[in-house]
């Protein structure tokens, strides 16, 4: 059993609140910055990375890259502007991938 | 001709029969694995959907209360209050084996057990709305961690199911029919060889008989000649 860390990655306003909980917060101003931070986090000891959907929408390739890896688990959360429905769509696509059709 | 090139020999036939047996057994096992994985996956995915909805709603509420707090306090003040967290979270990860897929199980530890410890600021200079906002965030965090676990599990299971499904289909629709065809081809070829060997023997026997008859006739003719006189047409040879 080893200990890991939890990161929150997103725009400044959305991630600020997580700081109070003691999570490691990484505000990113641009998608490019978020992309770089994500790769850095993956190399480090982070087991869970919460990423806002607003950024995830523009860095799909990076998110997909870690989908089949055990760590980090990249979990999409809605940003301050509201949910884009990407998180739900990903659940749907996992079903489609496994079953071949969306049966739920 | 079978799709794969095989030597029509008895040894090859035995080998192929063994492989077919293994393939059929493997196919059955993989099919069982796929079915069980699917069962587990559907449970996980249902939970995943419900939990995601809950987390998204909870987060929106928390964001809302943060917006209210930031409307009341200046943004510098807000940032300053949250800058140095009192609480810290550590994550322990163990693995659970679901049908030979390793899925993560998270246990998180907060540095202090007291739930009142989440406020990293003094109450004198901050508004009550910020307390609510932090509270909301803390309550949704439990679910967020659970969501991380379940979502990763469902992703990993989905990948494994996809792989297993491909294997099952490859065995069922390509490998096994191919081998069956090859086995049929070889056994037909071997039967054919056997028949042709029999025919050849029969032919040879016929030829030998024919030769023997001819020899006998010649010998008879010579004997008649040796006794002088023409062969009596009334006496059969």
Structure description:
The complex is a heterodimer of chains A (104) and B (237). Chain A is an alpha/beta fold and 104 residues long. Chain A is 43% helix and 24% strand. Chain A contains 5 helices and 4 strands; from the N terminus they run βαβαβααβα. Chain A has helices at 12-19, 31-43, 53-56, 60-65, 86-99; strands spanning 2-10, 24-27, 46-52, 73-77. Chain A has a 4-stranded parallel β-sheet, sandwiched between helices. In chain A, helix 1 links the parallel strand 1 (2-10) and strand 2. The longest helix of chain A is centred in the last third of the chain and has 14 residues, at 86-99. Chain B has 237 residues and is mainly alpha-helical. Chain B has a domain at 10-174: Helix Hairpins (Orthogonal Bundle). Chain B is 72% helix and 8% strand. Chain B contains 3 helices and 2 strands; from the N terminus they run H-H-E-E-H. Chain B is rod-shaped and about 155 Å long. At the A-B interface, strand 1, helix 1, strand 3, strand 4 and helix 5 of A face helix 1, helix 2, strand 1, strand 2 and helix 3 of B. Strand 1 (2-10) of chain A pairs antiparallel with strand 1 of chain B.
What is the strand and helix layout of this fold?
The complex is a heterodimer of chains A (104) and B (237).
Chain A: E1 2-10, H1 12-19, E2 24-27, H2 31-43, E3 46-52, H3 53-56, H4 60-65, E4 73-77, H5 86-99
Parallel strand pairs in A: 1-2, 1-3, 3-4
Chain B: H1 10-72, H2 75-83, E1 89-98, E2 101-110, H3 128-226
Antiparallel strand pairs in B: 1-2
- Let me know the average pLDDT of chain A: 83
Instruction: Report low-confidence residues of chain A grouped into runs of 5 or more.
Output: none
Number of strands of chain B: 2
Q: Architecture of one domain in chain B in CATH? A: Orthogonal Bundle
Low-confidence segments of chain B, given as residue ranges, are none
Largest sheet of chain A: 4 strands, parallel
């Amino acid at each position: 059993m080893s200990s890991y860390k939890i990161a929150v990655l997103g725009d400044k306003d959305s991630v600020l609140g997580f700081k109070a909980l003691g999570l490691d917060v990484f505000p990113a101003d641009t998608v490019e910055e978020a992309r770089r931070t994500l790769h850095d986090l993956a190399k480090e000891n982070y087991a869970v990375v919460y990423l806002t959907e607003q950024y995830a929408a523009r860095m799909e390739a990076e998110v997909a890259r870690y989908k089949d890896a055990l760590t980090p688990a990249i979990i999409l959360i809605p940003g301050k502007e509201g949910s884009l429905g990407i998180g739900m769509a990903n659940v749907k696509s996992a079903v489609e991938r496994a079953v071949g059709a969306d049966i739920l | 001709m079978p799709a794969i090139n095989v030597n029509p020999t008895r040894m090859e036939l035995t080998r192929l029969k063994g492989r077919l047996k293994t393939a059929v057994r493997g196919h059955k096992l993989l099919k069982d694995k796929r079915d069980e994985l699917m069962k587990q996956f559907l449970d996980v995915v249902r939970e995943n959907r419900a939990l995601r909805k809950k987390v998204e709603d909870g987060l929106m509420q928390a964001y809302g209360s943060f917006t209210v707090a930031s409307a009341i306090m200046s943004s510098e003040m807000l940032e300053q209050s949250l800058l140095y967290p009192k609480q810290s979270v550590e994550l322990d990860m163990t693995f659970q084996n679901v049908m030979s897929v390793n899925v993560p199980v998270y246990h998180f530890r907060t540095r202090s057990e007291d739930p009142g410890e989440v406020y990293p600021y003094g109450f004198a200079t901050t508004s009550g709305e910020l307390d609510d906002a932090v509270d909301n965030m803390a309550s949704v965090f439990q679910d967020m961690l659970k969501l991380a676990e379940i979502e990763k599990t469902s992703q990993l299971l989905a990948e494994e199911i996809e792989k297993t499904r491909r294997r099952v289909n490859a065995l069922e629709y390509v490998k096994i029919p191919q081998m069956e065809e090859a086995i049929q081809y070889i056994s037909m070829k071997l039967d054919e060889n056997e028949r042709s060997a029999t025919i050849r023997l029969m032919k040879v026997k016929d030829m030998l008989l024919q030769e023997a008859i001819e020899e006998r006739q010649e010998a008879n003719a010579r004997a008649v000649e040796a006794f002088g006189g023409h062969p009596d047409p009334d006496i059969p040879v």
